[in-house]
Amino acid sequence: MEAELQASGVELRFTQFLILKRLALVGPMSASELARSVELDGGAMTRQLDQLEGKGLLRRHPHEQDRRALRIELTPAGDAMWRQMTPCNDRVLEAAQKALDPTEREQLRDYLERVLHALRDKN
């Protein structure tokens, strides 16, 4: 993914790509929600957010109901970057699955989702 991004002129690491993707697809969220969704610890997430905020791709703003909390959201530049990265994402996914027919692709997705849910389930 990083090679595909760089070939398209996007200077982001894979983890930063995941953060922007999550915000683009889900919308604003807290740093802890975002960290869980991309499976980073708090310190690593703070470093990534600092870098992405420094590039003008996201911003932190106060939570509407809880003044102590912050919400993370894409800026217009971050949204534009996501739109630039989407074809890269599509090409990588297509290349990774090119040997699979549509039924196998759906089965793979189902298996991977179940494995991920099992790994995340604390019970």
UniProtKB/TrEMBL annotation:
Coiled coil regions, renumbered to chain: none
Q: What Gene3D superfamilies does this protein's entry cite?
A: Winged helix-like DNA-binding domain superfamily/Winged helix DNA-binding domain
Keywords, comma-separated and alphabetical: DNA-binding, Transcription, Transcription regulation
Q: Which Pfam family, any one of them, does this sequence belong to?
A: MarR
- Superkingdom as given in the UniProt entry: Bacteria
The record's listing under SUPFAM superfamilies reads: Winged helix' DNA-binding domain (SSF46785)
What InterPro entries does the annotation carry? HTH_MarR-typ, MarR/SlyA-like, Tscrpt_reg_MarR-type_CS, WH-like_DNA-bd_sf, WH_DNA-bd_sf
Q: Where is the HTH marR-type domain?
A: 1-117
Instruction: Spell out the protein name for this chain.
Output: MarR family transcriptional regulator
